[in-house]
């Protein structure tokens, strides 16, 4: 039976939107928003409405009526920690996404989906948001009870890639021990133990390798001293962690492809930063053998930077002694969301209620 699924995935500079018929993509587009366009908005709601309008225009262009839709699927944002799965977008979820102190474009996705779904008189859901939390108890203990480790990572893409790999080797995701590495604007390295991500770096503003635009783990004492020095506002300090950290801080660009191209031909600054990134990613991968008790079936590398063969070869050289390394370039978040929407429509899963999730 045919199911029309609208998928919405807002990022910092774009809104990805697609219409699927079941698992088959009918239309897809990355609606790019220039910095000037986005800087016009003073209030969060203004930007949200602007992006919603863009999605509605996309549907009109493709002659998809809201009444044609069977479900709207959105990328989840930085709500409270929840277990993996599909969640109905409801007032509780929308409330938390509006109030969250951690800013991220994915926080708008559920509201855009909810408004469009209401007009089409269908359900809106999110799946495997960035706050999926399956950490083991031991991984939560950070070193200070005031600052426990939290799970913020590319859960949707990591799980989709892990499941694709499992399918490819005719196994179930729940029987594998995998290290999944997402190399995107942010970098996350997760230990997937029998279907659960029991440890992962906090990929937004917490820990792990630096990335094209994030600083990853920093010497925290020095960061505190800088924060209280009077030289920086809170916003400036946060932007050093997310947005203007990592490669952007060292080289003034978040374009890892451009940096890799220069590193490959031996340009010194780019090579030094790339080598440090490779070193940090490889160290993080090695550290994830501990939660997997040294039994690793495979290491899977994904995300936009995984298109860079020079980079993935260098990482592979450093970790190939642990397990086979497989590369899944790019991300399949749109397809993963459509797949989850299709499972709901086929009654293979029932969306959970966010408010009833205990943590
Ligand atoms: N062919 C390529 N070779 C090397 N790097 C690439 C290539 N294509 C894209 N990248 C790099 O991948 C990075 C972006 O990755 P991706 O698209 O996964 O990030 P994002 O979706 O913006 O953020 P995130 O993945 O954290 O949600 C950029 O730094 C970009 O330069
Ligand atoms: C923090 C994980 C999500 C992202 O980088 O976009």
From TrEMBL:
Organism from which the protein derives: Flammeovirga agarivorans
Family: Belongs to the acetokinase family.
Catalytic activity: butanoate + ATP = butanoyl phosphate + ADP
Subcellular localization(s) per the UniProt record: Cytoplasm
Keyword Cytoplasm in annotation: yes
EC number(s) reported in the record: 2.7.2.7
Pfam families: Acetate_kinase (PF00871)
An annotated GO BP: acetate metabolic process
Protein name in the entry: Probable butyrate kinase
GO cellular component: cytoplasm
PROSITE patterns xrefs: ACETATE_KINASE_1, ACETATE_KINASE_2
Gene that specifies this protein: buk
An example molecular function term from Gene Ontology annotations: butyrate kinase activity
